[in-house]
Design brief:
354 residues; homodimer; 5-stranded mixed beta barrel; globular
Chain lengths: 354, 354
């Protein structure tokens, strides 16, 4: 594997409304130090690939309004590698754009596509899996998805059903995908976790650029056509102007639905590196350090009295004193404060929209 | 009664730590729009005396660090009427200072001394009582205290026991004081409210300046001596310098203990104008408008969901969303947030000291 062909695509266009007011449309979750570790999610995402992908091969696809935040938070990423979507069209057009752009620079590119706002606990294991997956796709037309060994009957994730009977010829732990499964109800999720062939779909994909461009040509010819026509303008001074004009014409469709569920050479690499999409306050509280009363404090000046099972997230300068709460989210940012029962967090999206 | 002899003394040196973080040492309760009505407590206090005391006869005694706030909030008060204590010495030295100062300007002055952070509901009744009390003391050496008809067995107030058998000769509703009573325990308070001669001590006193100066000479000769010696410097450019030097030598003692409990010509004027010292969040919540769930919202952008019996106090710009709380204080100011059960509010003082 030629390391110089390795590219990383970070998808950073999300709006993170479930973590309001910590996450806001002006500065969503991927740009926030959610864990209180001194690094934002997008920084942690890039950190994970040090030594695997050179900084000049890191690409970020995001909304125009986050361009400045990305430049600030990832100063090592070349400015021309920050691609700006004029509107949200789900993951397929986003991936198409960056793949055609990378292809123009290096048709031999081999790449990882990852969300920008997930968490990984075991960095070493993550790097092992990514490296082996890149090896697997460097010289083949395989699409490799990372499947997470489920630890609970989670209904918030999609699942990948593997065909465990026939491992791939070139890697004994990479299997053909039998079927992609949508987010299940609880009864179905409980069935899934009883069977060893079901994995959480992490949304992390590995493939070479030729493979994905071809797959899009076959399965999403309208999207492929847009970018074929844009090819002469990519990496020129007219790129943004033309993207702003043509990108909105793409249908809004996820890469799973657009390609994964249709492609032939699709594989799953089961992995166990402590992954979470950190999609809810409830999942965040399970991931961060807690005091002996089960309270998670993210912020420097937080005091809890007679309280348990709370998660408090504040800006560093804010002093917060909480007395007598059990099972609450307390989140404060700039001019907004939220206090909400953890068990009612699905209502936060509604609160954020006023 | 000559209205031009009427003076008002507003004592504004308190630190209001029970309302932290709404009230802070930098800007205590008397300088805050606690009720959300657009006026601070000290402004409301002065407003009550319009038409009774001319603005040039209003005096404020406060700490040097609040001088600018007082000037801003009470621009009608002449700057030389804002007297600055170099340190806190309770109410007796504070009242002595302002009385000697007023005596120098007008030995015929007749005055009301009032705290700056109390609330009065019935302004008309308040003005009637104050006017009649000033009439009573204009030409006599009486000290008149305003006694509030108790509506509950409050343990947070001192009580005044009146001798209801012999009203004063010149006003049928002003009685001699039998005894001052310290803040009682609950059993004692319950006894008090059963008997019609017990009244809450409002801390509002009416007297003429000669009376109080003489009383201090008799009962607190050390304090009187300090101000006798300072007399030549008062209302000169050396006033502050000399006060800063001598004031700290005064003993720290309350006017109740220093004079009231010892004086002969001491009267109580029972009144019922809806008074509160607003000493606790619990008392504040009873005084402000509430929604149908018993929530008091002071601030412009407060939303409560599934919540009741809460009091929320924020700066005007702050958006606050609360879900699922019953009986809590939520107070937010600048860089501090407090969430505390109303039933545990006695702990706020401790929280504020970290």
């Amino acid at each position: 594997m030629n390391r110089n062909n390795n590219h990383l695509v970070i998808m950073a266009g999300g709006v993170g409304s479930r973590f309001w007011p910590m996450s806001t449309p002006e500065c969503p979750k991927q740009f926030i130090d959610v864990m209180g570790c001194g690094r934002t999610f997008i920084q942690l995402t890039m950190d994970r690939f040090k030594g695997i992908v050179p900084a000049e091969n890191v690409w970020v696809v995001t909304s125009a309004k986050y361009a400045e935040i990305v430049k600030q938070q990832l100063p090592e990423v070349p400015e021309e590698n920050i691609l700006l979507e004029p509107c949200r069209r789900n993951t397929a057009p986003c991936i198409a754009y960056v793949c055609w752009r990378i292809k123009k620079k290096n048709p031999r590119a081999n790449l990882v596509v990852t969300p920008s706002d997930h968490m990984v606990v075991d960095q070493d294991e993550f790097r092992r899996v990514i490296t082996e997956a890149l090896d697997f796709t460097a010289d083949s037309d395989a699409i490799v998805t990372l499947g997470m060994k489920p630890t609970r009957p989670e209904t918030g994730y999609g699942y990948i059903q593997a065909d465990l009977t026939t491992p791939s010829l070139r890697h004994k732990s990479i299997y053909r995908v039998d079927k992609f499964r949508e987010k299940p109800d609880l009864a179905t999720a409980k069935e899934y976790v009883k069977h060893s062939e079901f994995f959480w779909n992490s949304g992390i994909f590995v493939w070479n650029v030729e493979t994905i461009v071809n797959a899009l040509r076959i399965y999403q010819s309208d999207i492929a056509q847009v970018f074929e026509e844009l090819m002469p303008y990519l990496a020129t001074e007219n790129e943004q102007k033309m993207i702003d004009e043509r990108f909105p014409q793409c249908p809004s469709i996820s890469i799973d639905y657009a390609v994964m569920e249709k492609a032939e050479e699709i594989f799953v690499f089961p992995a166990d590196f402590g992954w979470s999409d950190v999609g809810t306050w409830g999942s965040l509280i399970t991931l961060v350090d807690k005091d002996s009363d089960g309270n998670a404090k993210i912020g420097n000046r937080i005091e809890l009295h007679d309280s348990k099972n709370c998660i408090v997230h504040t800006s560093e300068e804010k002093r917060v004193v909480v007395q007598g709460l059990d099972g609450y989210i307390i989140a404060e940012k700039d001019d907004t404060l939220l206090i909400c029962k953890l068990s009612e967090e699905q209502r936060i999206k509604e609160f954020s929209q006023d």
